[in-house]
Amino acid sequence: MSTTVAFASNVLLPRLADWSQEFPDIELEIHASDHPVDLAAERVDVAVRYAAKPGNSMVWREICNDEFRPTAVPSLALKNNGMRSECIDLFSLPLISYRWKSPHKAEPTWEKWRATAIEGGSDHTCLSKAQHIKLSEESHAIEAALAGQGIVLASTVIAAAHIRKKKLQYVSDTALPGLTYYTVHLPERHDGRVAIFHDWLGSILQAH
Predict the structure, then answer these.
(1) Closest listed residue to residue 34, CA positions, set 2, 61, 69
(2) pLDDT in tens, 5-44
(3) Among 129, 152, 173, 202, which residue has the fewest nearby CB atoms (within 10 Å)?
């Protein structure tokens, strides 16, 4: 299967033991790249794609919707009295950001997040004074947050395993909407293994 580096590192790799235990007869080979592969040309049975809506070709099956929330290691949240509310002074900490490989209006930014928070009745006027850590890779932004470098607008799908293991925690209930995760495959490759993978992925992602 093919997917992005961030999805492979943060979603699939922590679950590989679960897959092997549940489906010992199905070997899962992961191709991680931030550039979509040509399923007709490559030896790939199924891909996980992140999009606003299904494409016009191939078979697209929805898994779950995504959103982005301010996320940090628990120790940083404790420095702010452990509060998970809009009165937390989030912006006294460095804000970690990253860029999507392909520009999209749904790309999460701290400016969009602040606007959403203001619409919800919170005033984060200190955003303009915040220190920013800008990275080019989503995976690196998650790693920086895990290292305690600051707060990241994390995908709730990408961060789910770290949240579950209490390595990260959400520090605000204000969220930005993301796109949708799909499994995608050629019609002729719709066999039992692809269906099993889709259902298994759905079971772990819809619980995030």
Answers:
(1) 2
(2) 999 999 999 999 999 999 999 999 999 988 888 888 778 8
(3) 129
